[in-house]
Write a structure and sequence with these properties.
The chain has about 575 residues and is of the alpha/beta class. Helices cover about 65% and strands about 10% of the residues. The protein contains 22 helices and 10 strands. Bound molecules: adenosine-5'-triphosphate (ATP) and magnesium ion. One of its GO terms (molecular function) is ABC-type oligopeptide transporter activity.
C-alpha cells in the first residue's frame, strides 16, 4: 500500500475525479447487492405460491432498471478514475523528458538508451495501472468485498457466513505468496526487456556497420537469444499469474460447497428460507470478483511500487552542470581565458587535461592540433560547460563560465561536433535547426559559406531533400558541411569546429576557411584539426600531447621550433605531394 502513499500528491491533485470515481464505484457496489435480494423475494413467493404474474413483471422491471443504471454508472466511474490515471502517465512522461533534456551528454553516456526507453514506457505504464486499476481493485476488494460480507452476515446468517468464509485465509496466504513470487519474476522480466530494447536500438542505429561486417547472422542469433530470454521470463510471470484464477475458483468452490451443505440444513430446520439461501449463494458468487481483485491489487501495487521507485531515482539524478542563482542572462562574449589545472572524467582516474593555460582574444582564431586522444574535444566540452571541472577556471569576457546562465552560454557557441548528427527531416530544417524562423535566404547564405550550396542544389528536391535516419543518403563531407552551415546560421560569438573538415578535400577546405575568415571578422573561432592546413591561418596554435600543451605559437613560429608540429607538417606536405603526383601521373 506504500505506493498509494507515494502517489498521494497525485490523488490530492486529482481529488475531485477520484472522489467522484470512488463514489460512483460504491454506488455500483450497493446497486449490485440489490438484484440478489429481488431474487430472494421471488423465490420465497414461489415457494409460498403467492407470486402473481403482475408482481413478477414488476420485479423484472426493477431488475432491468438496475441493470441499466449499473451499465451507465460503470462507464462513469471508469471515465473519472482511468481518466485520472492516464493523465498521471502523461505527467510522468513529460517530467522524464523535461528532466532528461536538462541532463548533460555525460548522463547519456552513463545510461543506455534502451534502458531509458523501458523506463519511459513500461515503468510509466505500471504506475498508471496503480493509479487506475490499483484504486479500482482496492475499492472493489476491500470496500465492495466487505459490503457483501456484511450483507451476508447481518441480513442473512452470520453463522453461515463464517462457515462459508472458512477457506478464505488460505486464499489470502496463497495470494500473498504468489504476489512475492510474481514480483521477483516481473523484475527479471523487466530487466530482460531493457536488454532487448537496447539491442534493437543499437542494431538499428548501427545497421551499416553490422551489414558491412557481414554480422547480420550473428546479430540475429544474439537477438534471438535475448528474445527467447524475454519470452521465457515473461512466461515465468504469466505462469504465476495464471495460478491466481484456478486457486480462486478452487477456494470459491469449497465455499459454495460449505454454503450449500450447511445452508440446506438451516433451511430444513427453518432457520432460513430457500429465498435467503439463494440470496446467500448469489452473494457468495459476487465475492469471487473482490477476491480476484484482491490478488490483482497486490500484483499491481508490487509493480507500481518498483516502477515508481525507479522513476523517482531517475528524476532525482542531479544535473551534472547546475546554474548558479543570479547568473547572467546576456550571451557570453569577449576574450576567452582557459586555466585548466587538471581535468579528469568521472569514470576515469587519470587526468585528460593538465596545465592548459590559453588566452584567446575576442575575434581571433585558435587552432588546436595533437594526436588522437590528446584532449582536443575534451577542451571544447569544458569550454561549452558540458561538464564542470573542479581544478581550474574558464572565463569568457572576464567572467567565469559558472557566472553565466546555461542558455547564455549555449547561445554564444556555434558548435560543429566531430561526428555530425543530422535529424531525419529536410536539409533546410537541419540547417535552420537553431532558428526555425530563419528565411530561405539566410539558410542558403549559411550553406554557401559552408560551400555546400551547390551540393544541395544537385539533389532533385534541393533544400527540401529529406535526410534519412541519421542522414544515410549524404556523404560524410556533405554531412559535415551541412552541420557547419547549421552552426554558421546562428552567426555565433564563438564558433567551434571540432575536426569538422576532415571529410572534405583540400580545395573545399581552403574555400571554406577563406569564407570563414571573411565572414567571421571580429568573432572568435576555435578549430581542432588533424590536417594542419585547417589551422595554418590561426593567430595562435596549440599542440596538445597527452592533455598538456607541448608547443604554442603561430604557424611560422611553430615551424621554426622544429618540434612535433614542424615534423608533422612536413609529413603532411609530403603526403599531399604524393597524392597530387599520383593523380597527375
Ligand atoms: P581525436 O583527435 O581522436 O578526436 P581528442 O583529442 O579529441 O581525440 P578527446 O576526445 O578529448 O581526444 O579524448 C581525450 C581522452 O579522454 C581520451 O583518452 C579519451 O579516451 C578520454 N575520454 C573522452 N571522453 C571521455 C569520457 N566521457 N569518459 C572518460 N574518458 C573520456
Ligand atoms: Mg576529438
Amino acid at each position: 500500500m506504500s505506493v498509494f502513499k507515494d502517489l498521494w500528491w497525485y490523488f490530492r491533485q486529482e481529488k475531485k475525479n477520484y472522489i467522484a470515481g470512488v463514489f460512483f464505484l460504491l454506488v455500483v457496489g450497493l446497486l449490485e447487492l440489490y438484484p440478489p435480494y429481488v431474487v430472494r423475494l421471488v423465490v420465497d413467493e414461489i415457494k409460498q405460491q403467492t407470486l402473481t404474474s403482475e408482481k413478477l413483471l414488476q420485479w423484472l422491471g426493477v431488475l432491468a432498471l438496475t441493470a441499466l443504471l449499473l451499465y451507465v454508472l460503470r462507464f462513469v466511474w471508469r471515465v473519472f478514475i482511468f481518466g485520472a490515471s492516464y493523465r498521471l502517465a502523461q505527467l510522468l512522461r513529460r517530467r522524464l523528458l523535461n528532466h532528461w533534456s536538462r541532463m548533460s551528454p555525460q548522463f547519456f553516456h552513463r545510461h543506455r538508451t534502451g534502458d531509458l526507453m523501458a523506463h519511459a514506457t513500461n515503468d510509466v505504464q505500471a504506475v498508471q495501472a496503480t493509479a487506475g486499476e490499483g484504486v479500482l481493485t482496492l475499492v472493489d476488494s476491500i470496500v465492495f468485498g466487505g459490503l457483501v460480507v456484511a450483507m451476508m452476515a447481518i441480513s442473512l446468517s452470520w453463522k453461515l457466513t463464517l462457515i462459508a468464509l472458512l477457506p478464505m485465509p488460505i486464499l489470502a496466504l496463497a495470494i500473498t505468496y504468489y504476489g512475492k513470487w510474481m514480483h521477483e519474476r516481473f523484475r527479471t522480466a523487466q530487466a530482460a526487456f531493457s536488454d532487448i530494447n537496447d539491442k534493437v536500438q543499437e542494431n538499428i542505429s548501427g545497421v551499416r556497420v553490422v551489414k558491412s561486417f557481414g554480422r547480420e547472422e550473428r546479430e540475429k542469433a544474439s537477438f534471438m537469444t535475448l528474445s527467447e530470454d524475454v519470452t521465457r521470463k515473461n512466461l515465468a510471470v504469466a505462469k504465476v499469474q495464471s495460478l491466481f484464477g484456478p486457486t480462486i475458483s478452487l477456494i470459491a468452490g469449497i465455499a459454495f460447497f460449505l454454503a450449500i451443505v450447511f445452508g440446506s440444513r438451516y433451511v430444513i430446520r427453518g432457520e432460513m428460507t430457500i429465498g435467503q439461501l439463494t440470496q446467500f449463494t448469489i452473494y457468495l458468487g459476487l465475492l469471487i470478483w473482490p477476491m480476484l481483485a484482491f490478488g490483482f491489487l497486490f500484483n499491481i501495487l508490487q509493480r507500481g511500487r518498483a516502477s515508481y521507485a525507479r522513476i523517482r531515482t531517475l528524476l532525482a539524478v542531479k544535473e551534472d552542470v547546475q546554474e548558479n542563482k543570479g547568473a547572467i542572462s546576456t550571451p557570453a562574449t569577449g576574450d576567452i581565458q582557459l586555466n585548466i589545472h587538471s581535468f579528469t572524467y568521472t569514470e576515469a582516474n587519470v587526468p585528460v587535461l593538465r596545465d592548459v593555460n590559453v588566452f584567446v582574444k575576442k575575434g581571433e582564431t585558435l587552432g588546436i592540433v595533437g594526436r588522437t586522444g590528446s584532449g582536443k574535444s575534451t577542451l571544447f566540452k569544458l569550454l561549452m560547460r558540458e561538464m564542470d571541472m573542479v581544478d581550474g577556471e574558464i572565463q569568457i569576457g572576464g567572467k567565469s563560465l559558472t557566472d553565466y546562465q546555461l542558455s547564455a552560454l549555449r547561445f554564444a557557441f556555434g558548435y560543429v561536433p566531430q561526428d555530425p548528427f543530422l535529424f531525419s527531416t529536410t536539409i533546410a530544417k537541419n540547417i535552420a535547426f537553431a532558428d526555425p524562423k530563419a528565411s530561405q535566404e539566410e539558410i542558403e547564405a549559411a550553406a554557401r559559406l559552408a560551400c555546400v550550396h551547390e551540393d544541395i542544389l544537385a539533389f532533385e528536391k534541393g533544400y527540401e531533400t529529406v535526410v534519412g535516419e541519421r542522414g544515410v543518403t549524404l556523404s560524410g563531407g556533405q554531412k559535415q558541411r551541412i552541420s557547419i552551415a547549421r552552426a554558421l546560421l546562428m552567426d555565433p560569438e564563438i564558433l567551434i569546429l571540432d575536426d569538422s573538415l576532415s571529410a572534405v578535400d583540400a580545395r573545399t577546405e581552403e574555400a571554406i576557411l577563406t569564407e570563414l575568415r571573411r565572414e567571421r571578422e571580429g568573432k572568435t573561432t576555435l578549430i581542432a584539426a588533424h590536417r594542419f592546413s585547417g589551422v595554418e591561418h590561426a593567430e595562435q596554435i596549440i599542440v596538445l600531447e597527452d592533455g598538456q600543451i607541448q608547443e604554442k605559437g603561430t604557424h611560422k613560429q611553430l615551424l621554426a621550433n622544429s618540434g612535433w608540429y614542424a615534423w608533422m607538417y612536413r609529413q603532411q606536405q609530403l603526403e599531399s605531394l604524393i597524392v597530387k603526383g599520383g593523380g597527375g601521373g
